[in-house]
Amino acid sequence: MKRSFFLLFLSAVTSLGIAQSKKSNSKPNIIIINMDDMGYGDTEPYGMTGVNTPHFNQVAEEGMRFTNFNAGQAICTASRAAVLTGCYPNRIGMSGVLLPGAKHALNPNEETIASLLKKNGYKTANYGKWHLGNQLPYWPTNYGFDEFFGIPYSHDVWPIDYDGYSKVTDAKDMRSSFPPLPLISNTTIIDTIENIKDASKLTTLFTEKAIGFIKKNKKDPFFLYLTHPLPHAPLAVSDKFKGKSDLGLFGDVIMELDWSIGEIINTLDTEGIAKNTVLIITSDNGPWLVFGDNAGSSGGFREGKSTTWEGGTRVPFLIRWPGKIKSGSVNSSLMTNMDLLPTIAAITGASLPRNQIDGLNFLPVLTGKTASSPRKVFYYYFGVGSNNLEAIRYKHWKLVFPHKGTTYNKKLQGKDGYRGEGASAEFPMALYDLAHDPGEVRDVQQLYPEIVAEIQKIANTAREDLGDDLNQKVGKNVRKPATY
Fold first, then answer.
1. % helix / strand / coil in the chain, to the nearest 5?
2. Does the annotation count 76 as an active-site position?
3. Is the pTM of this model over 0.85?
4. What mean pLDDT comes out for the span 361-373?
């Protein structure tokens, strides 16, 4: 009798142990594929014509497509800081863009998606473009990533001219002072990207690294952050896609990025982990329209990268989680890339950062438990070397404050990889109803003074919290970046 009881007890303990083991290995894998300068209208789910994107389409058909998803700021460094930390970039001193001469980086004290998931038992990797610190120790392995293979910043930050091969010799051109573009493995520079031919290998190279990581870690929960440097100019495409589209080199690049997504999906299917993997596809900001036919499409929204108009911050966002997120669903909730961190924390059971963040948890929205968005407000800050509150969105309203900013509508854009002339303009205060006027054409502030007053109150709160150089306000709750 005692022996039977002991065997039953042992069997129960063993079963419990197996169950706990299975439970510990059932945490969803997380993949974020973050494109560079891919505009809202650059793929078929968002209106692209002339380029087939079957794998973007597949993710949209098998998951959820957001139509009001915004980057935290309309430029590379700031947007990437928002993704990984869940904060407005200016809260953590990471507005604008880091060039080789920069003397600051993301503070390692800031907790990232990678560091939070690593503490929660995840394997973590970043393949592609980093752009949150230009030198050691400010590379991804110091921010929670077990592995990094990629470039420290955009692939146009090199001393090469627009033809992709010639050295820039004009001393007045800042590119002439840029160092060679390094290729980094973890903390070691292993090669340099010398010309556009070298750059054409990057999409395939980073895709292959990502596939290897998935296969190696398929039995453990993992976080893969695949940050493709393209379709940021200069455009570069491998021979297998060169000349394949009806939209020239830009279309070829989009086709190769679509192929990359297909390779990731196929690997998840082959390894039998697709159902336990959250796949996210987005972009860091809108298209760099100054490059004309070598830039993407803002999908009809006003302006593009480096502006606080919708074409600058409104970007694609596709998310697939089989069995959890309704296939083929479309969501018009206002969401931002800052919201990824708390949402992923909720999905995985990871802890939230100790410091204040600005992201909100969208898991109930994704799983259909609520149709009510947790986000009603978004601050449009911008400034390279400044901290300007240029607009605020409240529900479907957007109040633009008087400011000077970039415009792509005054000068001719570039062609065939050559940059057009930049321009700026003075923009007056205006109120736009994005539900009826997504192109931000008709100022309706005289019709809705009560909405203007309401958003002005929100603006005062933002200025107290995060500051505003346009009104000489210093934020009370901002944190400093790392400096060197």
1. 30, 20, 45
2. yes
3. yes
4. 97
